[in-house]
Amino acid sequence: MNCKTTRKLLADYIIGDVTPLEKAQIDEHLKRCLSCKKKAKEISSLFKMISSYTVEEIESGVFLEIKNNIIKELQTKRRFYLKIWDWLWLKPIRPAFVSLIILTLLFFLAYPSIVNHFSNTNNYSIIISSYIDVDSDEIQDLDKEDIDDILAVILPSYEDIATFLPLDNDLSDLNDSDIDIIYHALLYQDQPTVEHSTML
C-alpha cells in the first residue's frame, strides 16, 4: 500500500473501521514508512484528546429559554416598526384615523376644482386690473360672484361675442372655458377679428 492510500485510511484505521485486509496492509506500511507512522501518532493523540473531554448534558430548559429570548427579540423589533400602526387601530383612535383618511381622500378629489378656481380668479384679475385701478391682491379677495359681476360690466356681452364668430356657431354650446378664451381674445386683440374665430 502506498502513502497516499494509507493516509486516507489512517483515521478509520485508528478507530478500527477498516477491513482486516486493509488493517494488515496499513500495519505493514507503517513499519516501513516513518512519515506515515508519525502522522498516525498525531491522529491517534488527537482522538485521545477529544475523547478525554467530557460533554456536559444541557438541561432541557436552556433550549426553551434561548427560544423564548429569540422570540422576544423578534417581537421587540416588530413592535418597533409596527408600534404606530398598532396604536392607530386602538378603539378610541380608530374613528379619528379613518376620518383623517377620508378627509385626505376628499381633499385630493376636490383639489383640481380648488386649483381651477384659484387659477381662474388669477386670470380674471389680469382682465379686471387692465380696466380698473386695483391691486391683484384685492381681486384675489373677491369671491366668484363679485368677479362675475365685474366681468359682466367690463366684458362684451354674448351678442357682442357672436359678431366675432362665424354665423353657424351656437353660443349655447359654449362652456365657461370657451367663453373665457373669447373674452380674453376680445380684450387683447391686436390682430384682425377673423383670426380670433379660429380659437374655437
Write the layout of secondary structure elements.
Blueprint: H1 3-15, H2 20-32, H3 34-52, H4 60-88, H5 94-131, H6 136-140, H7 144-154, H8 158-164, H9 176-187, H10 193-196
Helix pairs in contact: 1-2, 1-3, 2-3, 5-7
Tell me about this structure.
- It is a single chain.
- This protein is mostly helical.
- It folds into 3 domains: 3-52, no CATH class; 60-107; 114-199, no CATH class.
- It has 10 helices and no strands.
Brief descriptors of the model:
disordered C terminus; 3 domains; mainly alpha
Task: Quickly describe the structure.
The chain has helices at 3-15, 20-32, 34-52, 60-88, 94-131, 136-140, 144-154, 158-164, 176-187, 193-196.
Mean pLDDT: 69
**Helix coverage percent of residues?**
over 70%
Taken from the alpha-carbon principal axes, the silhouette is elongated
- The parts where pLDDT drops under 50 for at least 5 residues are 190-200
In N-to-C order, the SSE pattern is: HHHHHHHHHH
